[in-house]
């Protein structure tokens, strides 16, 4: 018996995509880390205004946001402690250069590793991670921590089973039989209780759990640019049962579903 909440499936798959970027393609994280000095230069000791961070993290720069708006929100005179008014214009041009350089560097990483999505969630999440890593790298070692609106595993309710220990008046066989019977009854009662609770909360009973490991093969295709024939070979190697027959058509079907249902990136080629 297995329950699932289909509302969480997009977030779960997005979270797994970030996890597999860490596992399969560490070069993505390393490329983002190279942008940290640029990010810190733009911040200059102050948190980025939300509007500026939003402008930097969008798939397409807001053309309506003018230079004057960006400079006003960045508060160049305050951030860079410019006292001499004659230096303000020069300092503003330097700050704008750093801003555009950061955006271009981030754009290049997104393009190089095929990280564009229809909703732009992956770009936003990775920019959030970049900002957090720039300030506290010891707390943000994995890209999977970038899942702003992704899936977080639910905390499980703890259960406690108690039973009187083996007494000298009983044989060990009698004790084991009694203990096993009571433990099995305890487990059955717990499962019935939780099943009723999950149903009441809107979870659906499923007999065929979805396999999120397929997301890993999408990372191989998108980021590592591995040919699909080679991906099939890897799947065969990892299949310990030897019973799975996977074709390129099956692979394509999974990849398209990931893009259409969960807005995961999909390289065309």
Considering the chains and any ligands shown, give keywords for the structure.
269 residues, mainly alpha, 12 helices, 2 strands, 58% helix
Describe, in plain words, how this protein is organized in 3D.
The chain has 269 residues and is mainly α. Helix content is 58%, strand content 2%. The chain is built from twelve helices and two strands, in the order E-H-H-H-H-H-H-H-H-H-E-H-H-H. It has helices at 9-24, 26-33, 36-43, 50-57, 67-74, 76-79, 88-112, 121-135, 172-200, 214-222, 228-238, 248-262, and strands at residues 2-4, 204-206. It has a two-stranded antiparallel ribbon. Helix 1 (9-24) crosses helix 2, helix 3 packs across helix 8 and helix 10 crosses helix 12 (248-262). It is elongated, with a radius of gyration of 26 Å. The protein starts with a strand and ends in a 7-residue tail after the last helix. The mean pLDDT is 85.
In short:
With 269 residues, the chain is an all-alpha fold. The chain is 58% helix and 2% strand.
Task: Using the alpha-carbon principal axes, give the shape.
Answer: elongated
**Span from first to last CA?**
40 Å
> Major β-sheet, in short?
2 strands, antiparallel
Report the sheet-strand fraction.
under 5%
Compute the number of helices: 12
Mean pLDDT: 85
Structural class: mainly alpha
Number of strands: 2
H/E order of the elements?
A: EHHHHHHHHHEHHH
Low-pLDDT stretches? none
Output the radius of gyration: 26 Å
Give the helix level as a range of percent: 55-70%
- Spatial strand arrangement across the major sheet: 1-2
């Amino acid at each position: 018996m297995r329950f699932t909440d289909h509302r969480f499936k997009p977030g779960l798959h997005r979270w797994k995509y970030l996890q597999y970027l860490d596992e399969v393609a560490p070069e993505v994280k390393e490329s983002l880390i190279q942008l940290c000095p640029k990010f810190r230069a733009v911040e200059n000791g102050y948190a980025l205004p939300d509007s500026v961070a939003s402008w930097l993290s969008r798939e397409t720069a807001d053309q309506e946001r003018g230079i004057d708006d960006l400079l006003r929100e960045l508060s160049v005179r305050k951030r860079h402690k410019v006292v001499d008014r004659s230096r303000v214009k020069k300092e503003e041009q330097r700050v704008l250069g750093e801003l555009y350089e950061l955006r271009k560097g981030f754009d290049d990483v997104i393009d190089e590793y095929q990280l564009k999505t229809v909703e732009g969630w992956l770009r936003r999440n990775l920019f959030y991670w970049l900002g957090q890593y720039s300030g506290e790298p010891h707390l943000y070692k994995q890209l999977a921590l970038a899942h702003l609106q992704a899936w977080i595993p639910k905390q499980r309710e703890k259960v406690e089973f108690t039973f009187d220990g083996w007494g000298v008046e009983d044989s060990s066989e009698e004790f084991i039989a009694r203990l096993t019977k009571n433990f099995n009854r305890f487990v059955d009662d717990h499962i019935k209780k939780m099943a009723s609770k999950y149903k009441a909360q809107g979870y659906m009973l499923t007999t065929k759990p979805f396999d999120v490991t397929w997301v890993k093969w999408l990372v191989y295709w998108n980021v590592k640019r591995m040919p699909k024939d080679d991906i099939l070979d890897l799947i065969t190697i990892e299949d310990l049962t030897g019973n799975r027959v996977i074709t390129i058509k099956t692979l394509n079907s999974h990849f398209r579903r990931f893009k259409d249902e969960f807005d995961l990136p999909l390289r065309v080629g």
